[in-house]
Amino acid sequence: MILRRVWRCTRRSFSSFPYNRYPLDAPNCNVPRNIAKRVGTNLHRQPQHPLGILQRRILEFWQPHGFQLYDQLSPIVSTTHNFDHLRIPSDHVSRSPSDTYYLNATTVLRTHTSAHQHELLKTGQNRFLVAGDVYRRDEIDRSHYPIFHQMEGVKIFAPHEQNLIQSELKESLEQLAEHLFGQHITKRWIDTYFPFTEPSFELEILFEGEWLEVLGCGVIHPEVLAKAGRGEQMGYAFGLGLERLAMVLFQIPDIRLFWTHDERFHRQFASGEIVRFEPYSKFPPCFKDISFWLESAFHVNDLNEIVRDVAGDLVERVWLIDDFVHPKTGKTSHCYRIAYRSMDRSLTNEEIDDLQEVVRNRVVNDLGVILR
Ligand code: DAH
């Protein structure tokens, strides 16, 4: 049987990345072309994309409470907005170029939608949502992808209402969870820490026998408000990860599917409703190992970046399978396994061998490690 696959050109992304202003070969820039070219895709604004459907569903909940949505703010932000205004310490790991995409020393691809709290608070907004794409250098597996989407919410209260904040925060977010997952889900609150809220909480729901983190939230730290010129006021904030929720609600098994152009994926969501995804294919994975002696500056995210750059969405997972210290030289050797698998078609051995060869060469040239 010949499978007919229709690629919809309309879904191809048109990058709005300002290459002139932020050349990718500039000093301190660690953004690869395959990331830059997806800036501006705005999956969360496509009405028949699972992320767009979910965003609308969340908006439906907040809009009657007077929240205004901002879903077209540029993901290119200053380190001041992404970190400093949110009290993220100057030595925090999330600022490291191994974790964050820098366009230059003071400009990043936002790592969270919280990066917009300051500017919106400054313009006097009291109830708002921010939805958008966020970027993190991270591991490669079925639930991690360097671009994902978040939705942020902020509500500021009048002085005489301030004793309500914490209880209203928890009540509203429990109602939101019920709005998304149904009346009968089991939930629990976990105390946690974020630099920009005090106190801070996470909401988890019981899903198929496991606790799943749905969102982070808290009472906005007074310093965050003071920096935005709102020192007399108080309020709450929360942030949700859209892919994580959508993978559960639509039963989407792999995060790469959100980026597929395959019509067999997209036509399932034509109704604009939350429906269960029916997998259309499962092709076998192909595993390749790569072993090398580490040089001091090695970070696994640099390997991940190379594999993605070479193989794009054909890489499903990269993980450490062996870690060894040579007894005489004291040198460390790592062996990583790479799982290649397409979401849409079967791959040939030659194709994978070619990719793996390019990965091996790039690892040597770009990372200066010695292959074993
Ligand atoms: N920015 C957090 C993250 O990316 C999520 C978050 C937590 C947002 C608490 C908030 C908040 O507004 O109050 O992990």
UniProtKB/TrEMBL annotation:
<dbReference type="GO" id="GO:0000049">
    <property type="term" value="F:tRNA binding"/>
</dbReference>
<dbReference type="Pfam" id="PF01409">
    <property type="entry name" value="tRNA-synt_2d"/>
</dbReference>
<keyword id="KW-0648">Protein biosynthesis</keyword>
<dbReference type="GO" id="GO:0004826">
    <property type="term" value="F:phenylalanine-tRNA ligase activity"/>
</dbReference>
<dbReference type="InterPro" id="IPR002319">
    <property type="entry name" value="Phenylalanyl-tRNA_Synthase"/>
</dbReference>
<dbReference type="InterPro" id="IPR005121">
    <property type="entry name" value="Fdx_antiC-bd"/>
</dbReference>
<feature type="domain" description="Aminoacyl-transfer RNA synthetases class-II family profile">
    <location>
        <begin position="54"/>
        <end position="279"/>
    </location>
</feature>
<dbReference type="GO" id="GO:0005524">
    <property type="term" value="F:ATP binding"/>
</dbReference>
<dbReference type="InterPro" id="IPR036690">
    <property type="entry name" value="Fdx_antiC-bd_sf"/>
</dbReference>
<comment type="similarity">
    <text>Belongs to the class-II aminoacyl-tRNA synthetase family.</text>
</comment>
<feature type="domain" description="FDX-ACB">
    <location>
        <begin position="281"/>
        <end position="372"/>
    </location>
</feature>
<dbReference type="InterPro" id="IPR004530">
    <property type="entry name" value="Phe-tRNA-synth_IIc_mito"/>
</dbReference>
<dbReference type="InterPro" id="IPR006195">
    <property type="entry name" value="aa-tRNA-synth_II"/>
</dbReference>
<protein>
    <recommendedName>
        <fullName>phenylalanine--tRNA ligase</fullName>
        <ecNumber>6.1.1.20</ecNumber>
    </recommendedName>
</protein>
<keyword id="KW-0436">Ligase</keyword>
<dbReference type="Pfam" id="PF03147">
    <property type="entry name" value="FDX-ACB"/>
</dbReference>
<keyword id="KW-0030">Aminoacyl-tRNA synthetase</keyword>
<keyword id="KW-0547">Nucleotide-binding</keyword>
<dbReference type="InterPro" id="IPR045864">
    <property type="entry name" value="aa-tRNA-synth_II/BPL/LPL"/>
</dbReference>
<dbReference type="GO" id="GO:0006432">
    <property type="term" value="P:phenylalanyl-tRNA aminoacylation"/>
</dbReference>
<dbReference type="GO" id="GO:0005759">
    <property type="term" value="C:mitochondrial matrix"/>
</dbReference>
<keyword id="KW-0496">Mitochondrion</keyword>
<keyword id="KW-0809">Transit peptide</keyword>
<keyword id="KW-0067">ATP-binding</keyword>
